[in-house]
Write a structure and sequence with these properties.
This protein is about 40% helix and about 30% strand. By secondary structure, it is of the alpha+beta class. It has one domain (about 5-95): Alpha-Beta Plaits, CATH 3.30.70.100. Strands 2-3-1-4 form a 4-stranded antiparallel sheet. Helix 1 (about 15-30) runs antiparallel to helix 3 (about 70-85). The termini are close together. About 20% of the residues are buried.
Length: about 100
């Protein structure tokens, strides 16, 4: 079964509110087996226009990634995120080739 991934590109406008989002997302991410692969850190923008922060989260399956995002607990956290940052958020199914 292919893993699932979230990829987020963010520009944080309210760091204190963003900390509240991080606290609120911990339980739903843990409940759905999430693991951070990238969480901030250095990056190089090779082309285009990049936001300032990048995150990659791995889930045991695409279904788990989708279930986490759609859960009431994560949606409450996501509302905080949208107040704290500009965000582009993708959900992807991994490659098993």
């Amino acid at each position: 079964m292919a893993k699932g991934y979230w990829i987020a590109h963010l520009t944080i406008n309210d760091p204190e509110r963003f900390k509240q989002y991080q606290a609120a997302n911990a339980a739903p991410l843990s409940a759905h087996g999430a693991r951070f692969l990238v969480r901030g850190g250095a990056f190089v923008d090779n082309s285009g226009t990049a936001r300032k922060r990048h995150v990659v989260v791995e889930f045991p399956s695409f279904a788990a990634a989708k279930a986490c995002f759609e859960s009431a607990e994560y949606q409450a956290a996501y509302k905080i995120l949208k107040e704290a940052a500009e965000v582009d958020h993708l959900m992807l199914e991994g490659y098993e080739g």
